[in-house]
Amino acid sequence: MALHLTFDDGPDPVWTPVVLDALAAAGATATFFVLGPRVRAHPDLVRATVAAGHRVEPHADQHDRHDRMDRHQIRADTDAVVDALRAVDVEPTRWRTPWGLVTDDTRRVADDVGLALVGWDADTHDWRGDLAEEMVVAIKREAPNGGIVLAHDGLGPGATRPGCAETARLIPMAAAWGVARGLTLEPLPEPRAAPATLAFAGKRP
Ligand SMILES: [Zn+2]
User: Fold this and answer.
1) Confidence (pLDDT) at 193
2) Residue 4: beta bridge partners?
3) What pLDDT, in 10s, does the model give residues 52-63?
4) Cα(86)–Cα(32) distance, rounded to whole angstroms?
5) How many CB atoms lie within 10 A of CB 72?
6) What domains does the chain contain, in order, with CATH numbers?
7) Fewer CB atoms inside 10 Å of the end CB: C or N, the chain?
8) Do residues 196 and 116 lie in contact, with contact meaning Cβ atoms separated by under 8 Å?
9) 150 - beta bridge partners?
10) Distance 33 CA to ligand 1 centre (A)
11) What is the spatial distance between Cα 20 and Cα 191, in angstroms, rounded to a whole number?
12) pLDDT of amino acid 192
């Protein structure tokens, strides 16, 4: 079993290096769901993240709500962040949407672009300023046998904390707990060659 730490809304020139240092010190690797403008502003940070053994995947370009967007708007936004990643030699395979919102149009775009949608099992609520100790409690409760942990290495819309220091402080605590549980801390695996949704295409209503 694995504990998949995931970090949204970066790369951030201040906090992503802090998170990367904490992951390295903990011997953990993770997945980062990034924002297009921040990739374009900090391409070297994305390259450093990949070079450290982590995976970098798209979150959004403009961090808008999919339930207020049509299929063409979602596709255009997704193409923008995917293009930003390809410009730094990252080929996206997975996708976490803003706030995890997934509509029928989101699913169609994911299929069209070839991205596997990713949610989470445990929500650290780090964006609202929870302490690392509180986040560990949430992980133990919501992912007792491993799974996907949602956290943030950047400040997105709605964040009510000044920075990501508590998220960095969480990393060694989560890693120590995970290792004691026999969990490996590693990036989300690559999706199967064919998008999982294709296998069920014939059974869809
Ligand atoms: Zn976000």
Assistant:
1) 54
2) 148
3) 999 999 999 999
4) 15
5) 10
6) 2-196 (3.20.20.370)
7) C
8) yes
9) 6, 123
10) 8
11) 24
12) 74
Distance CA 197, CA 199 (A): 5
CA 177 from chain centre, in angstroms, equals 21
Query: Which tens digit of pLDDT belongs to each residue from 150-203?
Result: 999 999 999 999 999 999 999 999 999 999 999 999 999 999 754 444 444 344
- Is 8 among the residues known to form the active site? yes
Paired tokens of 146: 């491993």
Contact (Cβ atoms closer than 8 angstroms) between residue 29 and residue 186: yes
Is 104 a known active-site residue?
no
Q: How far is the CA of 96 from the centre of ligand 1 (A)?
A: 8
Q: What is the 3-state secondary structure (H, E, C) of 110-128?
A: HHHHCCEECCCCEECCHHH
The pLDDT > 70 percentage for the chain reads 94
Q: List the one residue out of 190, 192, 193, 187 whose CA is nearest residue 49.
A: 187
